[in-house]
């Protein structure tokens, strides 16, 4: 009989050490720290990313979100930030993954796949051998100003489910998750982890009541 595992929860767009501890206290096992992006919320200065990362305790993943796609830039960012995970939000050439691996031993690589349709399944399969995890989001990198996350939109969870079943690495689900729909998302997609930002915020700041409702809904699912 299969055993249901409670998904890990990553709270993204962390903007201060205080927010980091608030998220951890409510049950977050990963924190997202957003560097410069072409669009979307939560961008903070690299010096603040490094400060927050220094306060993240062992056992909690610190994700640097970067739109860079070349290894040299990504490696330099990771070294300045001191994070243990790099989240690549735009498409990366296969050779760059190897260069990142060699330069950042022990640092996890997470590739974002923006779920636009059935073609995203093949993209995920081609990327999976190079990374430690995949994160499914609802951006659109084909726009003139790229959307690389933080849209708050739900994408097609049927495609997401097929990706979860079709790759051999953990898969995080992002895009429009909130207390009201996370139970359905868990049942339909069966992701390893969940990623969210705006739905647990009020006026841009983490809202403890919304965090409590979200984590209660995850537990109930």
Question: So what's the oligomer here?
Answer: single chain
Strand content: 15-25%
Overall pLDDT score = 91
| CATH homology group | Aldolase class I
What gap, in angstroms, lies between the N and C termini?
A: 18 Å
CATH architecture: Alpha-Beta Barrel
Describe the protein's architecture and organization.
It is a single chain. It contains eight helices and ten strands. It is globular and about 40 Å long. Helix 5 (119-127) packs parallel to helix 6. It has helices at 17-26, 46-55, 71-81, 94-103, 119-127, 157-166, 182-189, 208-220, and strands at residues 8-11, 30-34, 61-66, 85-88, 108-114, 133-137, 171-174, 193-196, 201-202, 205-206. Strands 1-2-3-4-5-6-7-8 form an eight-stranded parallel beta barrel, surrounded by five helices. A two-stranded antiparallel ribbon has the order 9-10. Helix 7 (182-189) links the parallel strand 7 (171-174) and strand 8 (193-196). The model has no long low-confidence stretch (mean pLDDT 91). With 221 residues, it is of the alpha/beta class. The protein has a single domain, classed as Aldolase class I (TIM Barrel, Alpha-Beta Barrel), CATH 3.20.20.70. It is 37% helix and 19% strand.
């Amino acid at each position: 009989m299969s055993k249901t595992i409670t998904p890990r929860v990553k709270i993204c767009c962390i903007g201060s050490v205080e927010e980091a501890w608030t998220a951890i206290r409510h049950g977050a096992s990963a924190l997202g720290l957003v560097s410069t992006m072409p669009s979307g919320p939560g961008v903070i200065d690299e010096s603040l990313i490094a400060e927050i990362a220094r306060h993240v305790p062992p056992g909690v993943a610190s994700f640097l979100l970067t739109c860079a796609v070349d290894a040299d830039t990504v490696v330099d960012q990771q070294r300045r930030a001191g994070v243990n995970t790099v989240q690549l939000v735009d498409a990366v050439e296969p050779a760059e993954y190897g260069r990142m691996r060699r330069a950042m031993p022990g640092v996890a690589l997470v590739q974002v796949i923006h779920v636009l349709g059935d073609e995203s399944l093949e993209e995920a399969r081609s990327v999976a051998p190079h990374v430690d995890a995949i994160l499914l989001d609802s951006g659109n990198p084909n726009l003139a100003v790229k959307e690389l996350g933080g849209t708050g939109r739900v994408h097609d969870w049927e495609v997401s489910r097929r990706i979860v079943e079709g790759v051999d690495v953990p898969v995080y689900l992002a895009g429009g998750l909130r207390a009201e729909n996370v139970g359905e998302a868990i049942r339909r997609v069966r992701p390893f982890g969940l990623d969210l930002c705006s739905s647990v915020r009020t006026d841009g700041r983490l809202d403890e009541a919304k965090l409590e409702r979200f984590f209660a809904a995850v537990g109930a699912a």
